[in-house]
Amino acid sequence: MPDLAFAAAIAVVAALYSAVGQAGGTGYVALMGLVGFASETIKPTALAFNILVAALACIRFYRARLLSWRACYPFGVLGLPFSLLGGALHLPAATYQPVVGVLLLAAGFQMLRGARTAVDKAGLHPPPFRAALLTGGVIGLVSGVTGVGGGIFLAPVILTLGWADTRQTAAISATFNLMNSAAALAGAWATMPALPAALPFWLACVGSGGLVGSWLGARHLRPRTMRLLLAALLLASAVRMIATSL
Asked: Where are the membrane-spanning stretches (predicted)?
């Protein structure tokens, strides 16, 4: 894939994912796997993209008054240290993409099921503290190992259990992605290879896409549309990850 085509593709990925509070890690991983990046380069590069896009989304959702500290911080208490640990671990190249693909496939089908029914405001309840701790720790470890941020796995859990509505879930996911991606990148720093020389240009591209997508998600997309879009992104990324590993 030519450099400009790859840059355009990651910008589109950033826009689509940030509209639903995601940083786009799974999309970047799938694209870089398709292009032929080495697995040890894919992970830190995807995490760098995640940090930028998630930070932009957090600012956008905060300004839209959708971020709640009480809803966010329990997931990060164990999510951060376990993501740091996961960032220092490396899956063999032969298992990296199929493992991530299967996880995304399961999350995508769960999100597709959840998109058929909506929980009204009266049915929502804040996440129990202990459940949020456990959820954040497990997803933090998985996100650190895979380099996909973690919000893509957290969002289906929150929506299925009725812990937040769709827009609030997007805001929580963006915050979780930012914290975990930063921790995972710190964990991977010691063993990180030289990053691609084009990384600054790619960051500008994903940043532009992230700004557009987070604006749409915070202000304009309907909740059902956001759920269906997230389900489609999960399933498409899963199929691409599994297909490129065969």
From this structure: 45-62, 71-89, 133-159, 199-218, 225-243
